Amino acid sequence: MLERVAQPPTRELAEITTRTDTRDYLAHATKQARSYDDYEVIVDIDAHVSESRFWAEICTYIENDVLKQMAEGMMQGAKSGNALLNSASGISFQAVSGRIPHQQNNLEEVEPGAGHGFAQNMRRSMDAMGIDYQVVFPSGMLLLGMHPMHDVELHVSNAFNRWIIERIIPDEPRLLCLLYLPFHSPDLCVQLVEKYAHIPGVIGFSVSCVRNNPVYHPSYMKLYRAVEATGKPLVFHTAYNWTDPSFAQLNRFGAMHALSFSHYNLIHLTNWLFNGLPDRFPKLKVVWIEGGLAWIPYLMQRLDHEILMRPSEAPGLKRLPSEYIREMYFTSQPLERSNIRMLQATMETINAETQLLFASDWPHWDFDPPSAITTLPFLSDTAKRNILGLNAAKLFNLPVKRVRPRAEDVLASRGNLVS
Amino acid sequence: MTEVSAGRVDAFADPGRKVIEVGGIEIGIFQFKGAFTAFENICPHLGGPVCQGLMLPRTVDDVTQDNVNLARSFSKTHHNVICPWHGMEFDISTGEHVTTKTLRLRKVPVRVEDGEVFVTVPDRKHQHVHAWFTGERQRPPRERGTSDRT
């Protein structure tokens, strides 16, 4: 029955734009976070900085004088930019022409004296989504593997690593680093692994997948051995490449994005298996990031089918490819949820309860809040806790300790009513 | 259920909207070509604040009689609100996703009386994620909540 009463208090909510405070932007995620407020720890293995916002600052960490001058000369005093980078073709299409503001830009106000602006941005996103720890990857730099100037990948990635470790993490220790390895330069990668293995905040090492360097090449064996010796994981972070001739046939960003992300994981994981690397580095823990999940059962079935008929081409494999894949780790985002029964089958196929790691990909346009996991009807409570944090805590040796604020406190701090 | 005023009709642009929060319930009220609709401010995808997103005309393909797609253009008869979390686009006249009608915003009753817009505030909390993405059985949407401006 309709009740006509005196007008209750109402509050008008503004349009969300690039200037909206992250905590307001994600207020609905905070409401969702109440449903997992008692979880032991929430770890986000893949979040990003749009490094072009801070590019002049990052370039001050370049240790090569010539490249540093080139960057300064290209920037001409500007704070943001992409000097030296082979900017991704199509990167300006990501925000669907302004439809997704958090991908477009972040122009929210930050507090003077509360730490670096980016550290504040990410602290707000972690608090709003109910996340304890968050790994930060770059964005445009993920294309450096295709840069024709290999010295640029070497020096720019080193500058980025130093910026995260020396400038950002001290202001927000809940942020973590998977050190960007300049894969064009394997010997220098080994030096970086040995240099940073014991640095607080560095929980592993990463390779950007968008590249044509075959992972089986002999020059990488010392690197894998060095990473294995640290006990920390080696992660492969995929991305897209619209300039690849195959993908250049696709005339819409979304079409290219859907295929290109999976493509690079398919190539490198296939090479990893056919060349018998799992048994050559049995203690090396490998993680595949940001390809979603749907491609994995495809590859398992495809490779099992082929290897059974052509074992002489992969004598290093002692088991079926799918058996090795089930022992690897994968991150959850972008979680393909449009067919829940197929997603359930996928998660069962890859042993998600022990092998899947939550990733938000915030602030990119296809990010997932933790509710993407908690609302799955087929997962047990144990599986949800594992995927959202306990699997990562075990893999990366992180403390199982809650450091995030209570969801109710975050909502109250922004004047949100509880509903 | 409680009915509240969302303001005077002439305070709404056309196309335009206002998003209000009443007792923790968020409602988006839209006007397009003189007709008002209202929806809960919860995206059926992952629970984003859908009604607070950018509004744009629907994008359509301009296909000739020879089935040649010359370009895309903006519709003059359909207007969308776009969830700022992930870009899902919903027709503000129907609440339906532009690609699949199985995905739609939850309607809120709205009416106009003496130049003032009233909405009926839902008296229960709804799940933040739509059944489409959880595998749970979806109830057919209730066909109410649209009122022509008179």
| Helix and strand pattern of chain B | EEEEEEEEEE
Structural class of chain B, please? Answer: mainly beta
**Fraction in helix of chain B:** under 10%
How many runs of DSSP E, i.e. beta strands of chain A?
9
Within the largest sheet of chain A, what's the order of strands? Answer: 2-3-4-5-6-7-8-9
Strand content of chain B: 35-45%
Structural class of chain A: alpha/beta
Write down the overall geometry of chain A: globular
Low-confidence stretches of chain B: 137-150
Strand order of the largest sheet of chain B: 2-3-4-10
* Secondary-structure element pattern of chain A, one letter each: EHHEHHHHEHEHEHEHHEHHEHHEHHH
Biggest β-sheet strands, sense, barrel of chain B: 4 strands, antiparallel
Number of helices of chain B: 0
CA gyration radius of chain A, whole angstroms:
22 Å
- Computed CA radius of gyration of chain B, to the nearest angstrom: 16 Å
Overview of this structure, please?
- The complex is a heterodimer of chains A (419) and B (150).
- By secondary structure, chain A is α/β, with parallel strands linked by helices.
- Chain A is built from 18 helices and nine strands.
- Chain B has 150 residues and is an all-beta fold.
- Chain B contains no helices and ten strands.
- A four-stranded antiparallel β-sheet of chain B has the order 2-3-4-10, with no helix packed on it.
- The radius of gyration of chain B is 16 Å and the shape is globular.
- The two termini of chain B are 24 Å apart.
- In chain B, 41% of the residues are buried.
- The chains are: A alpha/beta (419), B mainly beta (150).
- At the A-B interface, strand 1, helix 2 and helix 14 of A face strand 1 and strand 2 of B.
